[in-house]
Amino acid sequence: MLENLALFAWFLGTFFTAGPTVQLNDAIITGIDAANVSKFLGIPYALPPVGSLRFRKPVPFEITSDRNVQSYGPSCPQQKVGFVPFNGSADISAFGNNPVLNYAPGEESEDCLTINVMRPLDTGPQDRYPVVVWIYGGAFQFGNAESHDIMGARIVKRSVALGTPVIYVAMNYRSSAFGFLGGQQVFEEKVGNLGLWDQRLALSWVKRHIESFGGNSSQIMIWGISSGAISVALQMIGPDSGENKEDLFHSAFMQSGATIPIGHITEGQKHYDFLLKETGCAKPGIDTLNCLRILDYPILKAAVDKSPSVSDYTSLNLAWVPRADGEFLKDNPQRMTQRGLVAKVPFVSGGVDDEGTVFGLSSRSVTTEEDFRQYVHEIFAPKAPIEELDPLWTLYPSIPSEGSPFDTGNNNTFLSPQFKRMSAFQGDVVFQAPIRFFLQSLSGRQKMWSFLSKQLKYLPALGSFHGSDFLLTLMEDYLIRFAVRHDPNNGTEPVWPEYTRESPQRYIFPPWFGTPTVQLDTQRADQMAFLTNLSLAYPL
């Protein structure tokens, strides 16, 4: 009798706790159903990059035995970044809740290379739904997939409501020094851009396995915002110089990011040397990279946390970024874009009107004309002869009405006399100019669409700040349509026209949440042209 009761209890427990299953090779993985979405979480796609695998390219891993995949894995190591705007405005300080910029929560570990899949309930291999692969942002310094769990589930449910179901995928990848170490020895050992290699391996995993989850391996869209969007653009270049030989993706959606003006990986030597000094690895006659590999994790992490972050004075001139290494990135990404060495897939690329305001907060000590000129030269154009920067001082004048937040007259000058000028320059040099260059370089070669959000324009100081389109979930219906049909239009809203060099039209989301309009992408033409030429000549 007792044996029968025990068996019955076991049966009930198994029946009511079993989740959705997927067969991967010879293994069965079991996920979890939650709020009309099936989730498969924390699936390893690479061996843990620890010990001798630290600072090396990811090594593929395949599950070979049954397991539950019902919770997220740890975040990759997060660089300590502090966002402390200023006192005096709750509205402005609220930007610290921006998931694009926020330090990712939860457990951290170097053993972090996992991937997560969400699909509509009762999806099977026969469904072959389009796939959206999310690459998170975070200034190449922080971020994780778990932070976007609610967003991923929302996209899956919204796609079902629209009658066009999609599958959502997000991976963890290494960031900061763990993913983007630079320097001569890194170049010689061919271990640069590890975060991009992580993303690439995850995309290969998706290509190989997504049909088992009910996805279409021939209809994969990669999507990102901020450094995630930059990552998408760099995946479009990729180690095969844009040929996309592995057929890893078929469309792309980029919010506030494109190929950026970065130079050779040896330009990161000073940051490499900083780590050596902080960790005691700066000893003559030793293999310094091996020294960093065998360090206890807390020692290395503490040193990384002392390196410059996006919230520091140097702001968007980041210490740990992708750089041309001759392998993943054969050359300066903008040069490769100029030569058309980009995957020939349809894409959307756009941003927000005031990309630079969040980043201008960290340089409020720039208050005079001399300060501004010194900052631009030392931080963003250290290799350019000072006289070559003369046009920039008039292209970005010390006139508040011409600064960012744009179209706000003389308002928003209470932070610093140079704040709006600094914000305009930083937003253009890192975001707006590269986006326009990307679009115009590839015009006529493949289908493309562009947008600009002006929503939240009248938020004090920040305006339509970096990441605001993401916070407002502004683009989600458009990206679902683009993943499904490679066209953001739905046939009822104002038509979103394709972007061409002859007619560079952008979809404009207005300040007051009204009906979108269409405008030519011609604002600040002289400024964009100057910054593009400057970055091509003197990449960071």
TrEMBL record:
Q: Which family does it belong to?
A: Belongs to the type-B carboxylesterase/lipase family.
Recorded GO molecular functions are: hydrolase activity
Record key words, sorted: Hydrolase, Signal
Gene3D superfamilies per record:
alpha/beta hydrolase (3.40.50.1820)
Report if keyword Hydrolase is assigned: yes
In the UniProt record, does the keyword Transmembrane helix occur?
no
Carboxylesterase type B domain residues:
20-470
Q: Where is the signal peptide?
A: 1-23
Q: Which InterPro entries match?
A: AB_hydrolase_fold, CarbesteraseB, Carboxylesterase_B_AS, Type-B_Carboxylest/Lipase
Q: What is its EC number?
A: 3.1.1.-
**Name of the protein:** Carboxylic ester hydrolase
Q: What organism does the record attribute this protein to? A: Hebeloma cylindrosporum
EC class of the enzyme, as a word? hydrolase
Domain of life here? Eukaryota
